[in-house]
Amino acid sequence: MKKRFIISGGGTGGHIFPAIAIANRIKKVVPEAEILFIGASDKMEMRRVPDAGYKIEGLHIYGISRDLSLRGMLKNLKLPFVLLKANRRAKQIIRDFQPDVAVGVGGFASFAALNAANQLGVPTLIQEQNSYPGVTNKKLASRVRRICVAYDGLEKYFPAEKIVKTGNPVREEILRIEKKKPESFEFFGLSPEKKTLLVVGGSLGAKTINLTMSANIDKLKAMGIQVLWQTGESYYKQNQMELSMLQSDTIKIVPFIKNMNDAYGMADYIISRAGALAIAELSILGTPTILVPFPYAAEDHQTKNAMALVEKGAALIVKDSEAGEKLIPTLETLCADEQKCAEMSQNMAQFALPQAVDAIVDNILNL
C-alpha cells in the first residue's frame, strides 16, 4: 500500500523551501509516496509548491491582525470563525487523502492542518527552523509526536522528550559548491584575482542594506574589493537609474541571483539577513559573514538566530538601525584581519548540518 504524507506550512520562503526539500527527500527514499501540501490560499506556496511538482490544497486562514484600524478590528472579530472553517476544511482534506503522517513547517495553515490531523489520530511532526519558535509551533508542540529543531536550547519552549536536533534542510546543490570557479567570475563579469563581497538581503531584498551600499560605493572601491550585490527586484525597479550609475568593473548590481551556487562560490565575505535558511546555507559554506537581522521578523527571531552564531565567534552582527553607521567599518575591519576570517570559518563549521533533511525524513518515516 502506498504511503501518504501531508506537508503543511508557508507564508514565506523560510517555510516553503524547507517543506519542498523534505518532500523531495521523501520521494527519493519512498519513490511511490503520495504527497499533498496544505497551504494558505492567498500566500506564495500556492505558486511555489506546484512549480516544484506537488499538489496543494489551500485554506482561507490568517493570523491576528495588528492593524488598529476598523478593518483590522473586523478581521480579528471574524478570526475565530475563519479558524473554525479552516479546521473543518483541513479535516475534510485529511479524511479524503488518508495520510500516514502529517508534517508542519510553520505558518497559519500548518496550525489548522496539524490540529486537524491530531484530532483525527494521524501521527504528526513539526520542523522548527528558528532559534526562537513561531506561535504556530509553540501551540502545536504539546500535541505532536516529534519536533525537529535546528538550534540548541529549545527545551525552553518545547517538551524536551520530543525534541530531535536535525538542523534545517538546505538545497542539495549547496552541498556541491565549487569555490573560485573561473566560469562563475566570467558569468558575473568579475575578476578571480580580487577579493569578492557578496551582498544579499533575501529574495525580496533589504532596504537598509541597499541604502548603506548605495551611500558607500566609493569606500568599497577604495578597499580594493569587488562586489556582487543583490538588491531585490522591487528596489531595483524603483531605483534602476541610480543603480546603473553605480555599476562598474568591480561593482555588479543585480535584482536577483538565480545561480546562487556560483555567487556563493566566488565570495570571500558575505553580508546577509539572518533568516533560518540563509544561516543554514552560510554555515555549510563557512564564508566570513556579517549578519544584519531584519528587526521586524516575528518575535525578532532573526536577531536570535544571528546571536546563536555571534556568541560562538562564527559571525559578526550589525543592527539594522546601525547599519548606515557601522556596516562598512565592520566590513573594513573584517577584510583587514585574515586570522579573524579563518577563526570565523572554523567556528561556523559547528553549525553546519548538511544531512539535516535526511535526519528529518528518518524521523518522519519512524512515525
What is the compact description of this entry?
The protein has 16 helices and 13 strands.
Word description of this protein:
The structure is a single chain. With 367 residues, the protein is α/β, with parallel strands linked by helices. 46% of the residues lie in helices and 15% in strands. The protein has 16 helices and 13 strands. The protein has helices at residues 13-29, 45-51, 70-97, 108-119, 135-140, 182-188, 207-215, 217-222, 233-238, 240-246, 260-266, 276-285, 301-310, 323-335, 338-348, 356-366; strands at 4-8, 34-40, 55-59, 101-104, 124-128, 146-149, 163-165, 196-200, 226-230, 251-254, 269-272, 289-291, 316-317. The strands form two sheets. Strands 3-2-1-4-5-6-7 form a seven-stranded parallel beta sheet, sandwiched between helices. A six-stranded parallel beta sheet has the order 10-9-8-11-12-13, sandwiched between helices. α5 (135-140) links the parallel β5 (124-128) and β6 (146-149). The chain is globular. The mean pLDDT is 91.
